Amino acid sequence: MNGKKGSFEINIPPEATKSKLPGTSKEGSIGAFSSCKAWIWSVWEFAKEDSNRVKFALKVGLAVLLVSLLILFRAPYDIFGTNIIWSILTVAIMFEYTVGATFNRGFNRALGSLLAGVLAIAVAQLAIQSGRVAEPIIIGISIFLIGSITSFMKLWPSLVPYEYGFRVILFTYCLIIVSGYRMGNPITTAMDRLYSIAIGGFVAVLVNVFVFPIWAGEQLHKELVNSFNSVADSLEECVKKYLEDEGLDHPEFSKTVMDEFPDEPNYRRCKSTLNSSAKLESLANSAKWEPPHGKFGHFFYPWSEYVKVGAVLRYCAYEVMALHGVLHSEIQAPHNLRFTFYSEIQEAATHAAELVRSLGKDISNMKRSPKTSLLKKVHSATERLQRAIDMHSYLLTSNFDPPDNSSKPLTKLPVTFSTTQYDLSNPLTEFDSNSTENNLSQINENMPSGTPPQQTESYHEMMRKQSRRLHSWPSREVDAFEEEGGLSMDLLPRMKALESTAALSLANFTSLLIEFVARLDHLVEAVDELSKMAKFNHEGV
User: CA–CA separation, 320 vs 232, rounded Å?
Assistant: First the structure.
């Protein structure tokens, strides 16, 4: 208080008077600049990924500008009046990414506008002849019928490609007949709007064809070739990682479900191949509307065969994705068991990927080359893998009996594996209650005579724990064994069954690889059929 009754004095520090306004601080400015920079960089990367996107955007702007000149200049505006706005709408609606899609959309636009104009003129004349009282009734009934019929017909399966044409009929008819009814001259209104639509369509086609054209046929051709390379690369990547993986660093289950494998770039490319069915069909439908161009220089080019080849390729890609599923599964075969069949698996996968990549190269170069030698290599490598699996099938079970060598000698795998620490005759040492005792007895023999009993017991305990870790699958801590009462006789059969299940994942992987090779025959036939119908040149011509 300052001494006056009813008054108070409050002392405010000088620093508190300096308030910081939100959004005006230096940190806020830096954050806004960083976000803006990141957005610009993402736009740059998006445009850099496919330069045709920028070309398409510029072409649309050019087409709209050319049509807008008809309004900006006085002479054409005096001729068409406000109906010239229909040309701008036509360009905005009709202009598509590829030339073929633009032709397709233009055909639907032209045919729909023509039919709608003819129907509007005919119904308007009938309504005028019926008198002023019946005229709005006839127009209203006709709008209801046209709307119902076109909406139903565009749902018909065989007419789905012309869905846009039915939509054009509906809104063009309604706009022409309603505006003509109010203006009193439906024929003049219909003709002016048809002229405007024709001008807009002509400008859209002209710009799309002659200014940096983007052909749907070339896009389809490149997309199919890239799919071949993606499948081949993904197969090699998967097999290489499966054979070299020692099981030390597996992704978490959540990452496996979400397909988050940043160290496998080819995996995502192969996955996109599985989802390319709709894209290939769309490009093929658009390519059918395009005139001969570039290396596709003859009419009635078999674009539908590209879709068939893509379907067979996806049939092979499913097997590659299944191989990836085994690679990232929770149950894995021991690394030394996988390494036993290293050369057979690697050879089959390499030759298969080489064949797939060769087929894609032939389509890219539009050449026909014999694939007999490559097929023989793939089949020979696969047969060697099958023989190796059959000969050493006992390795894929935990309870196996060694083969009888007295009647027939055991064929060994290639010499490259002789340096490994993996004994083929006994790869999965059967664990029983006597094995631990044998190990302990050997330790007692090797122990110095003066070793205290407690130290000897610690060695015994250590060996017992190592045996538990070695023969447990899935791996568990030693405490878990203690809680369950140690290695009881009931636990041993279950452990052996789990070991057998882990080994069988290798059989699953090899069977999927063999199935992939079997499907390559269908792929070769599909590519050969495409090369015949597309009239590819023979290699060397």
Answer: 9
Q: Would you call 368 helix, strand, or coil by DSSP? A: strand
Q: How far apart are alpha carbons 220 and 226 in whole angstroms?
A: 10
CA-based radius of gyration for the chain: 38
pLDDT band at 66; cut points 50, 70, 90? very high
Token match 């080489």: residue? 354
Write phi, then psi, for 293 (nearest 5 degrees): -155, 150
Instruction: Name residue 312's amino acid.
Output: V
Residues 356 and 67: their CA atoms lie apart, in Å, by 48
CA distances from 12 to 1, 15, 17, 20, 244 (A): 14, 8, 8, 17, 71
Nearest-angstrom CA–CA distance, 422 and 346? 19
Dist. CA 260–CA 7, nearest whole Å: 69
Model confidence at 254: pLDDT above 70: no
Residue 537 β-bridge partners: 367
Domain 216-246+258-399+497-538 has CATH 2.102.10.10: no
Q: What is the mean pLDDT of residues 246-271?
A: 63
Q: At what angle do helices 52-72 and 85-94 cross, to 10 degrees?
A: 170
Higher pLDDT among residues 494 and 48, named by residue: 48
Let me know: does 395 contact 423? Beta carbons within 8 Å.
no
Give the domain ranges of the chain: 46-210, 216-246+258-399+497-538
Alpha-carbon dihedral 519, 520, 524, 527, rounded to 10 degrees: 80
User: Six-digit token pair at 241?
Assistant: 């990682």
CA dist list (Å): 197 to 121, 179, 183, 289, 341: 17, 16, 20, 20, 68
| Predicted local confidence at residue 29, as pLDDT | 67
Determine the number of helices (DSSP H) and then strands (DSSP E) in the chain.
20, 2
- The Cα–Cα gap between 355 and 228 comes to 10
Give SS3 for 293: strand
Q: Find all residues with CB under 8 Å of 129, minimum gap 6, and list them.
A: none
Residue 207: name the closest of 113, 111, 295, 94 by CA.
94
pLDDT band, very low/low/confident/very high, at 249 (cuts 50, 70, 90): low
- Are 70 and 76 a contacting pair, CB within 8 Å? yes
Q: Spell out a b/e string for 247-280, using b for 16 or more CB atoms within 10 Å of the CB, else e.
A: eeeeeeeeebeeeebeebebbebbbebeebeeeb
User: How do the residues of the chain divide into helix, strand and coil, expressed in percent and rounded to 5?
Assistant: 70, 0, 25
* Assigned token pair, 90: 């036509």
